[in-house]
Amino acid sequence: MNETKQESQLLADAKNIHQELIAWRRHLHQHPELGFEENDTSLFVQERLRQLGIEFQSGIGRTGVVGLIKGDEPGPTVALRADMDALPIQDAKNVPYASKIEGKAHLCGHDAHTTILLGAATLLTKNKPKKGQVKLIFQPAEEGFGGANEMIKDGVLKNPDVEIISGLHVHHTAETGFTTVCPGLSSAATDMFNLTIHGKGGHAAHPHLSVDSIAVTSEVVSALQQIVSRQVDPIAPLVITIGKIEGGYARNVIAPSVRLEGTVRTLDLQLRSEIEEKMNRVVKGICDAFGATHELEYEYGYPSVINDETLIPILQEASDTILGTGKLSLAKPSMGGEDFSYYAQQVPGIFFRLGIRNESKGTTFPLHHPMFDIDEDALPLGSAMLTQFALSALRRLENS
Ligand SMILES: [Zn+2]
Ligand SMILES: [Zn+2]
């Protein structure tokens, strides 16, 4: 078969469903659901798969859906993964498709990921693999709840056994029509902590009779950054961010305690294992100095995504075919986290970024920003890229 002809056909097919993709994405964007609550999103995905005649299972990893597109003959299995959950942030966009749900919005682009995978499902029903099959993984709860892990526990990588997996994330740092990938170690391990500083409450006018937990906390917050700058190798990246502080009652009351919530990001496993102890030591030292005490709850979250470098030529082929030559570039690791890592720990995987930046459309805001939006021209490109990747990966598995 003439590959170039078939492959440019994929892009043409994707462009033919552009309006449908936009409608799906806008529907999802207006009806965001948080992690493990994606009931309507899951039903929406199931309805599309049913219309396409694709067999699927629902309730995998609670609200996840897994579709299977079989080729003409039996063979290997390649999986494509999209996440479906939204964020607990108020949408600040003034557009007709803005979130209709107060305090919830698709500001990480997972509505686009779900749409792009539904688009790939549509393309694959028309361009079935000759041999083998493509598993479509619609995953819940990427934003901190580890939906990938739940799906793996429910057997998503088995029966048929997945041999290669890929997925994408839309990203504002790349222009529409471009894509980036980081070879090897590509995202941070993301750990979480809750820290409580206990002082002694009292009257604001008599600080000497109490222990001011807010004053102690201010020392703690800056001292934690000294771990980053003075206690670890500057070549080993570390982020300690406190994203939330709560404490106190009124202007004339000394706060008895303060609670802080934060995240720790590392790329190095050894360093990752040292941070909890370093934090305890620094916080205890400050609390001792001022007569306060502390409690640190430290929880290990997502591991780093490790992209299998042997899959980069397949991604390169997909990029060259769908986007044109010179559109894929290599990126540095990100301190962001991504639970795609759980799949990539089990089977060879590659996670790449799809450009959605378009200055003229104003799609320049970063992920998790209240104004985040995508250039919808990227939707068919994503669908065609994933489809091309799956078909090329299957061909490579057959020939290996
Ligand atoms: Zn996110
Ligand atoms: Zn995301």
Describe the 3D structure.
This protein is an alpha/beta fold. The protein folds into two domains: 3-186 and 304-399, Aminopeptidase, CATH 3.40.630; 189-302, Alpha-Beta Plaits (2-Layer Sandwich). Helix content is 36%, strand content 27%. The protein is built from ten helices and 16 strands. The chain has helices spanning 3-16, 18-30, 39-52, 110-126, 147-153, 213-230, 269-290, 312-322, 340-346, 378-399; strands at 55-60, 64-70, 73-83, 131-139, 164-175, 179-181, 184-185, 189-198, 202-203, 238-247, 253-254, 257-266, 293-302, 306-307, 328-330, 349-357. An eight-stranded mixed β-sheet has the order 1-2-4-3-5-16-6-15, sandwiched between helices. It has a four-stranded antiparallel β-sheet with strand order 10-12-8-13, with helices on one face. Helix 1 (3-16) packs antiparallel against helix 10, helix 6 (213-230) runs antiparallel to helix 7 and helix 8 (312-322) packs across helix 10 (378-399). The structure holds zinc ion (2 copies). One zinc ion is lined by residues 108, 143, 367-368.
Low-confidence stretches: 1-7
**CA gyration radius, whole angstroms:** 24 Å
The ligands found in this model are: zinc ion
What's the CATH topology label of the largest domain? Answer: Aminopeptidase
Query: What proportion of the residues is helical, as a percent range?
Result: 25-40%
Within CATH, the superfamily of the largest domain carries the name Zn peptidases
Task: Estimate the mean pLDDT confidence.
Answer: 96
Based on DSSP secondary structure assignment, what is the total number of beta strands?
A: 16
Strand content: 25-35%
Please, how many helices?
10
The rounded distance between the terminal residues' Cα atoms is 20 Å
CATH class of the largest domain: Alpha Beta
Order of strands in the sheet with most strands: 1-2-4-3-5-16-6-15
Protein name: Amidohydrolase
Pfam families: M20_dimer, Peptidase_M20
Organism: Caldalkalibacillus horti
Domain Peptidase M20 dimerisation: 193-284
